[in-house]
């Protein structure tokens, strides 16, 4: 899953439960006072949905769900995990003085932990047996991690390092340790199934990479699952999720596409008009989604009868912001979003044209990051205070906005404005630092 930024609304000690009952040791009426909390459904056979204690003064920054444990990264770089039925927890290595954790990615019974010094360490079952990752080249460092049957580490130079470090049960280190570094760059997120990886590029396109193990343990790989559907003109992918036999792609226009086993979206409900899918996570037989209105849905099948397809109930006035699926369990992150929540939003421009021809169409790509999950929003391009182009974008994704330059009457240097409006009063404008397009006439 991709990296997300959040705003802290409250900083209080709490025991946050991720069982289907909701919050533990906190009255339901008080739940809205929390910055974030976790709600879950499905199997808790390994204790992966047991309560997690959030220390006083800290809040949830990211959650990652494996087959036997849930991992939580807090806003101060602390890593927490669930207690197993035996009363023990995976050991989290203590980082050196002055170093904290910046990202986490669970997979199977293990997790990758990224430190602020750019080092990746392993935690969980057989963690000490994993080979070390190749060192990043001079001038680069590891910046994000993603779990799965194939793990992925992104570097600051935009390249992705793909590696098979344990099988999909998390029990054994494979005889062959396969590592591959992409020759191209600018990747922003990744998801994987058994023996393949789907990498999302900064331009919103997705690339499939085959990481089949020569040891022939991957005979069950479904090559269709790593097939990337063709994008319609003007759209991008904003989120992708995979398992061994299926992949789910969410497009910037809100459409969901599935490759491989179609049962992963069985029973998916019709969503309200104007609502979009913004987040997805895929487990063994089911998938869970977050919608732009803050609701959540679950689809797929439940062959084990573990209640996998149940969606936890959320308190009125609260919204789902993220979702993680692992095996037959689901964990939603919830948060109370109110109109008076102050949100800091950063927007950046990529591949901005330096010149266009008057009367033609210019394409502007705008990437939006927010200190709170915006659950989607609208990017508007203006010229002389008139809107000449709009685009829909999810948090951390890219909106491609097409601008008809025929709206710009005067040749020469012309200035345009870029603004973003999202949920929870998340607003940002670049109107004061207008972008200059040099309109050329022929």
| CATH top level label of the largest domain | Mainly Beta
CATH topology of the largest domain: Methylamine Dehydrogenase, Chain H
N- and C-termini, Cα separation = 46 Å
Low-confidence stretches: 1-15, 17-34, 166-176, 339-343
What is the CATH-assigned architecture of the largest domain? 7 Propeller
Count of domains: 2
Strand content: 35-45%
- The outline comes out as globular
**Structural category:** mainly beta
Helix proportion = under 10%
Largest beta-sheet characterization: 6 strands, mixed
Backbone CA Rg: 22 Å
Mean pLDDT: 74
What is the number of strand segments? Answer: 33
CATH homologous group name of the largest domain? Regulator of chromosome condensation 1/beta-lactamase-inhibitor protein II
Tally of individual helices = 0
Quick overview:
With 442 residues, this protein is an all-beta fold. Helix content is 0%, strand content 43%.
Highlighted features:
globular, disordered N terminus, Methylamine Dehydrogenase, Chain H, 2 domains, 442 residues, mainly beta, 33 strands
Explain the overall architecture.
It is a single chain. The chain has 442 residues and is an all-beta fold. It has two domains: 14-336, Regulator of chromosome condensation 1/beta-lactamase-inhibitor protein II (Methylamine Dehydrogenase, Chain H), CATH 2.130.10.30; 345-440, Immunoglobulin-like, CATH 2.60.40.10. Helix content is 0%, strand content 43%. It has strands at residues 14-16, 37-42, 52-54, 60-65, 70-74, 79-81, 101-107, 110-115, 120-124, 142-146, 151-155, 160-163, 179-181, 187-193, 196-201, 206-210, 237-242, 246-251, 256-260, 277-282, 286-291, 296-300, 318-326, 329-336, 345-350, 355-357, 361-370, 377-383, 386-393, 398-404, 412-422, 427-429, 435-440. Strands 26, 28, 29, 31, 32 and 33 form a six-stranded mixed β-sheet that branches. The chain has a four-stranded antiparallel β-sheet with strand order 10-11-12-13, with no helix packed on it. A three-stranded antiparallel β-sheet has the order 2-24-23, with no helix packed on it. A hairpin with a 4-residue loop joins strand 31 (412-422) and strand 32. It is globular. 50% of the residues are buried. Mean pLDDT is 74; it is low at 1-15, 17-34, 166-176 and 339-343.
